[in-house]
Amino acid sequence: MYDQPHQMQNAIGKLVPHISGKTNLYLIGFAGDSEENVFRNEVEFVEQQFIRRFDAAGHTLLLENNVATLADRPIASLTNLDIALDAVAKKMNRDEDILLLFLTSHGSEDHQLYVDMDPLPLNQIAPEDLAESLNKTPIRWKVIVISACYSGGFIDALKNSTTMIITAAREDRTSFGCGTDSDITWFSKAFFADALNQTDDFAAAFANATQHITEWETRDHEKPSYPQIVSTSLIEEKLKQWRNGIHLGAPVRSFQSRPQKPAPIRAKRVRALSRCPLILLGLPNVENYRDKPASID
């Protein structure tokens, strides 16, 4: 935890300012759960896809909870997300550029995004937490993609006239595809690895991804996840300006065919948790630390 300011400065130092003459897209990726590599895999794949295919070199910043990346990447915490959003806001042209915020983890029925870097008891992220973090910045144009169970529960807190929101599931449904043997969730495979390798239009990619997810769920007799999209004419026009200015690269295909029976993303039940005394943990006051959730659905 003491190394996090250094890690964040290293990550921020790699960001480049707005490139004039076109709408730029900046990506922040957030892999919340350290217990499964699938979340790390997804944000790293999306970063490479947007660098190589969507002209976003120098405009990406990843936050990851994974033991393999502790020395290389900042952890995914609410505090680091606030710092990342502030840093990107200072690099971008706030009137012209777009933020793509991609969050992937487990999600709970009471609409909290699971954040874990064992043994640190980090805060979970509720819809109002994410809304507050975004509202503290002057970033106007946003695409927010949340891959988690019950992620549709974030929509009401985040929606506005200049934001597109895409979620892997409705507020009352689970999504599928995590597990120790999985490289990518069903939603991220369908939306990023498949659809956005065929089109540069987010809304069209969502329609394509939803069709494939429905086919997979029907085949495997799963309860439908019902991915969600909320958009407006303003953000659609801004995304069109971005598409007109990029030099579209070749498809990026790091993932092979989808496993035949991926495990469902189990929603981790997050209970009301008491705070830990920081003096006992011996840690700086950079997060409001809490106990870990006690059970998994």
UniProtKB/TrEMBL annotation:
Note the InterPro entries from the entry: Caspase-like_dom_sf, Pept_C14_p20, Peptidase_C13
Q: Could you state a single Gene Ontology molecular function term?
A: cysteine-type endopeptidase activity
- GO BP, one annotated term: proteolysis
Caspase family p20 domain residues are 77-149
* Protein name in the entry: Peptidase C13
Give the originating organism: Pseudolysobacter antarcticus
